[in-house]
Amino acid sequence: MAKGATGALLGLVTLDRDADVPLFRQLDRQLRDAILSGQLAPGIRLPSSRLLARELGVSRISVTAAFDQLIAEGYLEGRRGAGTFVTSELPMDLAGIAGLEPAAPAESAPACDVRDDLSARGHLLRSTRAGTRPETPAAFTPSVPAFEEFPFRIWSRLTARHVRNPDPALLHYGDPAGWRPLREAVATYLRDARGVRCGADQVIIVSGAQQAFELAGWMLLDPGDPVWVEDPGYVAGRDALRAAGAAIHGIPLDAAGVDIEAGSARCPLPRMLMVTPSRQHPLGITMTLRRRLELLRWAQDNRVWVLEDDYDSEFRYRDRPVAAMQGLDRQGRVIYTGTFSKVLFPALRLGYMVVPRDLVDAFCAARTLAGRTVPSLAEAVLADFITEGHFAAHIRRMRQIYAERQQALLEAAHDQLAGRLELQPAAAGMHLIGWLPAGTDERRVVAAAERRGVVVVPLSHYSIARGGRPGILLGFTATPVADMPDAVARLAQALVEA
After folding, report:
1. Residues 83 and 160 both lie in one domain
2. Which of 76-90, 142-156, 256-270, 388-402 has the lowest mean pLDDT?
3. Domain end: 342, 359, 392, which one?
4. What are the pLDDT digits (tens) for 400-441?
5. What φ, ψ does residue 220 adopt, rounded to 5°?
6. Residue 484 belongs to what H/E stretch?
7. Coil vs helix vs strand at 397
8. What CATH number has the domain bearing residue 178?
9. 71 or 127: which carries more pLDDT confidence?
10. How many domains does the chain have?
11. How many CB atoms lie within 10 A of CB 301?
């Protein structure tokens, strides 16, 4: 290569001597990118390793190592007595094939449009809201527990116990249904606290309730099968069933829960119904016993699967938690799901489902394909956390803390939000609904709140049918009592701005 060509090559290479990446690795990556982008054409001769090392101010060993790597990968070829060349076997339009534009910065990702190459299911998944990045938890973010109140010292001690002397079974692939001691602990808890009729053999440990919804969709629905969902209702669960190919039908609610008569008028015979009977999400309605029995009878008569999402029933501030609807089921039509994300912390990624015995093997086969198991160490720690009484103690403590935080929100709202936002106390759950005056633009409220460092979710986010009274969800569990007045003050300023 002529001296001028050497200068051109030097313009393509920038080495950072302070970086953690070795110089030879930086050089081989940048030469590779120059070849793929067409800046170094097939057949062109490179300067000698001695000359390039001198011009770059690096050791010849670094240049030789980079050349050797690129020769091994087929980008360069050495010709005895002639030097080192970009391999002539590369196509001339390599830049177009590789999806790179000439002179593209080495750190930039190649741009391509693959939307037309997605499968039908890929388009379906892309159309859901599942790809939205979660917000950083801030004041009023719904469904976020009080992380600072979690007993991490106890959790750390239990973790150390298993790490120091692990059961060999914890190091294997594990049972696709989950760690047996955890399944037994969950079954005992659900029988005692939630009135669920189950044995440990019916419990399947999953990566959060979201995976339970996915498995139910895979195993019980064919593409195009009609499914009833509450409207407004839980978006992530609805999207999981839509991703399974279900035809989603939003069903309105009345004071007793999901309206069966209205649902039958819209879609007479669904394959599945997804409900949150203990505390409807997001409206907070507790389905009456009469409606539960009617719903189960209707499901049995029409062979409809009922997917029961029992997402935060532990947090009830008046009276005992309402028993799960699954405990009333005598025909095996209910698939029951729950999660530890709300009661412990979301990053744990542990949930559970209870399925009829005849379906256990089929669901376990699907669980194997969906990642086989959750990490066994976390399962073992959680099993001890439950069986040694820490879980029950934590729930009791958090009920008291959350009740105090809800009261703090109500008191601050009474002082600062009167006339702008209507709030009523809730007997259970982790959020309140703030009802806005008729005609208020929820989007403007959300944007103004975000500018003030407050996260609120519009009620319309959960709705399929448009219209209805505007409102916002206010999570209160992650905001300490001492911080509540300031958070409400910022929300009040946002409401004025909106």
Report:
1. no
2. 76-90
3. 392
4. 999 999 999 999 999 999 889 999 999 999 999 999 999 999
5. -120, -5
6. helix 484-497
7. helix
8. 3.40.640.10
9. 71
10. 3
11. 9
